[in-house]
Amino acid sequence: MHPATTDLAAAVREVEHHVAAAGWDAPVRVFALVRTQAALATEPGLADQLADEVLAAAQAAPWHLTSIEQEGLPSAPDLESLLAELSWPDAVDGVAVTVERVVLPPEAEAQMPQGKAAALAYLLAHPERQDVRLAVGVLRDGPSWCAVRTRANDADDQVGQGPDLVPGLVAALRSTLH
């Protein structure tokens, strides 16, 4: 296992909990992930903005990550287009994104009508639909981590987690780092 996996998992959980605190029906949010020790070395004033326990964790773990929400994202018609427009300087060690989606069981998805308007109406009216929030993070040439929360089980201890729960989004995020 990559030494940063545990720290990336913690950063993705933190981002997901932060976004969850604002409630549902939220826009896409994007976060740069930087190693806290490196950020403190280049920006000593950052120490004044971090809690003592965060500073202690950063001293103890070389891969401790700080997330920096990106404001003023470019306008894009969808998540894929937005990610295609993003690139990161070398000082950014990784990236995380949160996005909400509606999902259906595979058998219901197979019956979805063609056409964007008809498919959307079907999706929103389907009794088995699930609203989910995806929080996905990747490190440059390193691990990925995903957290998935459903609106039906909206509790911090009910968030599913794993390295590759959303492989398409992992790959799209990774492409922004090259």
Kindly describe this structure:
By secondary structure, the protein is α+β, with helices and mostly antiparallel strands. It contains seven helices and six strands. Strands 2-1-3-4-5-6 form a six-stranded antiparallel sheet. The two termini are about 20 Å apart. About 25% of the residues are buried. InterPro entries: PPA1309-like.
How would the blueprint of this fold be written?
Layout lengths: L4 H16 L8 E7 H7 L9 H9 L4 E5 L9 H7 L8 E10 L2 H5 L5 H10 L4 E10 L4 E7 L9 E3 L4 H9 L3
Antiparallel strand pairs: 1-2, 1-3, 3-4, 4-5, 5-6
| SSE pattern | HEHHEHEHHEEEH
Fraction of residues in β-strands:
15-25%
Mean model confidence by pLDDT:
92
Which descriptor suits the 3D outline?
elongated
Q: Can you give keywords for this protein?
A:
six-stranded antiparallel sheet; single chain; 178 residues; alpha+beta
Task: Write a concise synopsis of the structure shown.
InterPro entries: PPA1309-like. With 178 residues, the protein is α+β, with helices and mostly antiparallel strands.
